[in-house]
Amino acid sequence: MSQHITLSIDAMGGDNAPNMVVEGMDMALRDLPGTKFILFGRSEQLVPLLEKFPKLSANVDLRHTDDTVSNDEKPGIALRSGRQSSMRKAINAVGEHEADGVVSAGNTGALMAMAKFVLKTLPGIDRPAIASLLPTMRGESVMLDLGANIQCDAENLVQFAVMGEVFARNVLHIEKPSIGILNVGTEVLKGNDSVKQAAAILSETKLPIDFYGFVEGDDIGKGTVDVIVTDGFTGNVALKTVEGTAKLFAGALKQELMKSLPGKIGALVAKPAIDAFRSRFDPRRYNGAMFLGLGGICIKSHGGTDALGFCYAIKVAHELVKDQLNEGIKEDYARFSSEHHSIPLIAAED
Amino acid sequence: MSQHITLSIDAMGGDNAPNMVVEGMDMALRDLPGTKFILFGRSEQLVPLLEKFPKLSANVDLRHTDDTVSNDEKPGIALRSGRQSSMRKAINAVGEHEADGVVSAGNTGALMAMAKFVLKTLPGIDRPAIASLLPTMRGESVMLDLGANIQCDAENLVQFAVMGEVFARNVLHIEKPSIGILNVGTEVLKGNDSVKQAAAILSETKLPIDFYGFVEGDDIGKGTVDVIVTDGFTGNVALKTVEGTAKLFAGALKQELMKSLPGKIGALVAKPAIDAFRSRFDPRRYNGAMFLGLGGICIKSHGGTDALGFCYAIKVAHELVKDQLNEGIKEDYARFSSEHHSIPLIAAED
């Protein structure tokens, strides 16, 4: 890591790019003074935008490229034909140690494919996972995988557990994070083979990991565990279900309040409290999904976010660089692997 | 169906049984006059309870049995050794055409195993599914499967789609219900083999089914489709995630409002609106999961519910009997099967 943290930014990814990207960078810089940016994208669009933010401009190294990755591009195609894209060049900057981390609001599959190709996976990790923080009754939990791996075996889930544990310890600063595997019930006999075997492995490990066991969908909101481990299919559905339910609730509350005069007056009087409630669950605050298990920090911003959301994604990247997340994963995974391979995997099956 | 609708009730299932069961029956009877009940359970507990509700008692045929199914009993064991249980006897009453439907708040796995054994599946249905209504921005949608089938192939999902469609038409009274398959993205290439193949089959069918395509987790709350089809693992996690997020939100809203005087005053002024909001998402209103695809109406109440929740589960059973759901499923499935088997399944694979 250089003295100042340098982040490379894909200016062209996301529905409202590049405007929200540049504005989000400016917001982030105010809270993270000293941060340097390398910005990749079309200079004819970016130069006039940057002129509006002189303080930001002084900390931006603009690199022109015409090519972009579209949202419907298949990952494999993007990987082969997108070598000159803003996304790929932003990732390359991390691979070439010019930047400490990369942020993009572009095509998730393409970003993962390119990041995996350029940054490689950490030793012992077969497949990187997408992780995100979620609000809970107790604070925040981290859930992974959120869509990078549609089908997962027990070994994948165990790797996610270790990555999530290191993340919670190094970034959420929880001394001994608890880990749960998402399932349809809490009894050991419930679920598919992958979750049952992964639970058996994690129960038997001698590593100082606090394995809670199985958790269910409602445990996400309760904050029963600090780390929720699941396959990418289930995790993606669960994450988006949280988002959808949040929107449904916020909309319905507003609707009911606006239906009557007492409702309107009450809402006006309680506005600071209602605003605090809304802000607590503002999806922009939880923007910035982390690609864990790669040889570099890579953050995926929601494609539909605005400047504030992109600012939060930048902050996540900054935090992971600052906390040296990958060093932690490497060390812990090495310890875990040597321990783990002494466990007879066959004992987990029956 | 007899002139009056008769429901058989397992008095002993659920955390607060039999009190909440009997009280819930009394509540339901007030809204559904003329309903008859056959109540199975321990008469020494039930007789004194029924004495409190003379109007209900006049409509209850009490059948004593000592045996009950515990919550941690494995389905196979319950099936073999629970022949004298209140749950099994309540199901038998439907199998023997004494009752038109059964309601139990007991062990889900045992209830499904017993109901499948006694009531059999409908022609053309390999596996019954658990379905439930969910609140959405547009009203209500039905989602299935919610946990009966942990691993599902394309054929299972197609059967769920047909059952869900018939349900939405006959019970939600939607003329042409739209059907979506829950996935991690809306593009045809996303997801696992089961969802991709099921989508291909449903896209190609000539039946008058309104197949929307894939939906994501946030489409549940949006109400994008009337019927959400998914495997039992994903569906169970999604349903409980909705419940957990709802609780998290309700709790956090209350917390923020009670933190300050203006919040408290605003909440008091807007109380009717906030109560309307709370009632709209009261989980008890959505109690009563339906076992679809069986040769009889079987409703599973949440184990932890109270009398009001159990009352709603009874109402669901009553509604399904009244709307002759199973006749609809049988007819539609027969039509679909003859059509469906002319579709080359192999075309769906690639």
The computed structural class of chain A is alpha/beta
Fraction of residues in H or I helices of chain A: 40-55%
Please indicate the count of domains of chain A: 2
**Over the alpha carbons, how many angstroms does the gyration radius of chain A reach?**
21 Å
Low-pLDDT segments of chain A: 342-350
Shape field of chain A: globular
Q: First CA to last CA of chain A: what distance? A: 47 Å
Strand content of chain A: 15-25%
Question: What is the multimeric organization of the chains shown?
Answer: homodimer
How would you characterize the largest beta sheet of chain A?
11 strands, mixed
CATH architectural name of the largest domain in chain A: 3-Layer(aba) Sandwich
The number of helical elements of chain A comes to 14
Q: SSE string of chain A, helix = H, strand = E?
A: EHEHHEHHEHEEHEHEHEHHHEEHH
* Order of strands, widest sheet of chain A: 3-2-1-4-11-10-5-6-9-7-8
Under CATH at level 1, the class of the largest domain in chain A stands as Alpha Beta
Number of strands of chain A: 11
By CATH, the superfamily of the largest domain in chain A comes out as Isopropylmalate Dehydrogenase
Fold and architecture overview:
- The structure is a homodimer of 350-residue chains.
- The model of chain A is unreliable at 342-350 (pLDDT under 50).
- The first copy, chain A, is built from 14 helices and 11 strands.
- The first copy, chain A, starts with 5 loop residues before the first strand and ends in a 10-residue tail after the last helix.
- Chain A has 2 domains: 1-119, Isopropylmalate Dehydrogenase (3-Layer(aba) Sandwich), CATH 3.40.718.10; 124-291 and 326-350, Isopropylmalate Dehydrogenase, CATH 3.40.718.10.
- Chain A has helices spanning 19-31, 43-51, 54-57, 75-81, 86-95, 108-119, 154-170, 193-204, 217-222, 232-258, 261-269, 271-280, 307-322, 325-340; strands spanning 6-10, 36-41, 60-64, 101-104, 129-136, 139-144, 178-182, 210-215, 227-229, 289-292, 297-300.
- In chain A, helix 1 (19-31) crosses helix 13 and helix 5 (86-95) runs parallel beside helix 6.
- Chain A has an 11-stranded mixed sheet, with helices on both faces.
- Chain A is of the alpha/beta class.
- The first copy, chain A, is globular and about 60 Å long.
- In chain A, strand 7, helix 8 and strand 8 (210-215) form a beta-alpha-beta unit.
- At the A-B interface, helix 9, helix 10, helix 11 and helix 12 of A face helix 9, helix 10, helix 11 and helix 12 of B.
